[in-house]
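Backbones bend. Our protein:
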Amino acid sequence: MDHPATRPAAHPLLDLPPLTAERFASIEQGVADLLGTCQDVVIAQGEALLPLEACIRSGARPGSTALNIVTGPYGTTFGNWLRDCGATVVDLAVPFDTAVTADQVADALDRHPETDFVSLVHAEAATGNTNPVAAIGEVVRAHGALFMLDAVASVGAEPLLPDAWGVDLCVIGAQKAMGGPAGVSAVSVSDRAWARFAANPAAPRRSYLSLLDWKERWIDGGRKALLHAPAQLEMLALEACLGRIAEETLPGLTARHAAAAAATRAGAAALGLARWVALAAEAAPVATTLRVPDASLVVSKALAADPSAPLAAGGGALAQEMIRVNHYGPAAALPVVSAALTALAAALSAAPAPALAAAESAWQTALSA
């Protein structure tokens, strides 16, 4: 058998030098700078469900009581994990077309004073709502419970101030407004949270879910030696993503998402479509959800007209009544919004021109505000 005399040609995605601990730590610091946090940051080598589950399994235990705020599908997942850990779970559920209020959270904590863990999703991309974390954080901090926030869909798209808002565990993912990869995520961890984890005998150890392993072997060790070989491509993509955000600036990124949301909603109104989340203050800037009969059929027709349009029907029971227009990351741009509106117009047998004109006007107004 003949063998090649030379090695395969170099490949930019395959033949990479090892990622050093120093470079890993610098990317970690970039995430901390993005969040404006002085807390420890741990970069998780996987999608954001990894650190979310790690936070719950480290912080919840038999004998604890958790207030799980459910404003969308992820709240249901958190509740299941909390129960798996043996915690008593109090679900505070509100309709998915609205947001929870700080008063509702305060009332739930008053009725369950033993609560020592609170979980909340900041923005629900699946349903298009966003929650008032600053006000809720003030209530939770006064109560003394540990506060975990899923900020995967909000980071980069709207203000996110974990330290100022009293968030003990702030989990982010790079794949939405940040415009980065889906395979890497991060969590900021307060001193209170580390103490809670260390006091929990059921907290994962010697496990991919163990945050304490990272604390003891990486952070306390001076960030000299990584626990395992990092997900190199994802880490380099996250580094590039942070660099691109720095060039645009974080205020510029949030302004672009606000403009995309305003343009989409103005265009949808011109098509006669009602918003799923009626109150503007409760609508997330990463996605616009619309109340549309036969939603799945409308989306199918729209995608037949333009397969690249960022449109999806609601999940589960919402499939026949809700359409989601995604406008995050690179899709938070007027041409993408216009393409989505044009596809929707085609599905509805409507003229696209009024919607496109309304979207452009709203885009310009939002950016000039």
